[in-house]
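Handoff note, outgoing to incoming analyst
You'll be picking up this chain. Sequence as last confirmed:
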Amino acid sequence: MSKEELIVDLLISEIHPFIDHPFEVRDDDAMKETVQSVKDYGIIMPVIVRQTDYGCYEMISGHRRMRACELAGIDTIPAIVRDVDRDTAIIMMVDSNLQRENILPSERAKAYKMKLDAIKRQGQRNDLTSTQSVQKLIYFIRHREIHNITYH
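Most recent structure output, in case you need it:
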């Protein structure tokens, strides 16, 4: 956590799930255990969110903790608000969930695809102004992917 980041209590009603979140939050036995833990000890690790353009927040990491709070009847949750773009949020969201043991193969595949797409977008050049330059760049990337060429 950087020096500028603070842990704040946010209303759960102001936090929305991450758009296209690939991991299902299940109300199963593990969730029942999490709910009981939240009742007994509270939220030990704050969730990570980012502020939206509409004044609400989008969950990056902590969907299960937030659901446990809802089931426990708790209205607020400790959160770290990060100032990150969507692609960085995707990478953070995926990385914070992939270590879990009970992830379905379809969830894992969608998560890796989201992360790969975000990384590709982060690597795109935005300083090209000529349509011809953009077309050359697209051709170069596709050629590299088709022929499995890597550069170091």
